[in-house]
Amino acid sequence: MNRIIFIGILSLLVSACATSPTGKKYVKIFPDSQMSQMGAAAFTSMKKSQKLDTNPRSNQYVQCLVSALLPELLIEDRRVYGNQAKMQNVRWETSVFLEKTPNAFALPGGKIGVHTGMFKIANTPDQLASVIGHEIGHVWAKHGNARMSNQFLGNTALQVGAILAGEPTQQKQQVLGLLGVATQLGGLKFSRDHESEADDIGLILMSRAGFDPRASVQVWQNMSRMSQGRKPPEFMSTHPSNQTRIARLNSKMSQAMGIYQQARAQGKRPNCRL
After folding, report:
1. Domain residues of the chain, as ranges?
2. pLDDT per position as a tens digit, 115-154
3. Which of 32, 76, 128, 172 has the most CB atoms lying inside 10 A of its own CB?
């Protein structure tokens, strides 16, 4: 029985290995179609349980930003994956939620949400484009799938650990070693890796679309000022803002500015206004 369990889990790990747009390896257990269904279901539930902003100006503003970013995503997607492009058939949907907490998110299946409270933090079109680009980056890199897959493996590790408790066989050590790596990926380092990758993707997307990439740093500076002396905004609780992150963005700014200047020369000048 132990050998069968080990072989089953090992086969699952091998078959579930995938590569992100930036070349990072991750575990992907769930099919994209299932993740899209879960994303759509979650988004529908949120729209029913939370108040939507019906102001045409704010909705048109956010949609303008999204519409400028998505063509660049498709270009990057085709460049990276060729005929196997991942996002070409995604039907994106955007909603603005009447909520004072500064937050924004994107779900598998192309669902984007922005809280009206984010307008006070990302208070220019370039700044909000950096936030939305970052969230789109999470979807493109399938970070939701990776998190769920690692959580699944973490739970399985506990179950297998209980089943295999007893004899210190080599197979038992191999199983626990494989699943131990998976659970570590779901910890702090995993989160930082995902955030950094989403930052990288968002920086490229916004620059290609003609948004000033320097605004990405300004957003996190605004976040830091807002959080001084009080509880950090919800957005910061899952997207840690610190000097290390700002320094990392600045280290990539020369390349991003080159892309931005080229985009502007090509006439890419998004005219999004709230």
Report:
1. 2-265
2. 999 999 999 999 999 999 999 999 999 988 887 777 666 5
3. 128
Structure tokens at 196: 């950094």
Contacts of 247-251 with CB under 8 Å at 24 or more apart are 248/196, 248/199, 249/199, 249/203, 249/216, 249/217, 249/220, 250/217
Helix (H) or strand (E) holding 107: strand 104-107
**Type of residue found at 146:** A
Q: Which of 135, 167, 195, 197 is catalytic?
A: 135
Tokens 């799938």: give the residue.
145
Tracing tokens 């029913």 back to the chain, one arrives at: 48
pTM reported for the whole predicted model: 0.81
Q: Is 135 a catalytic residue?
A: yes
What's the burial of 38, exposed, middle or buried (CB within 10 Å: 0-12/13-18/19+)? middle
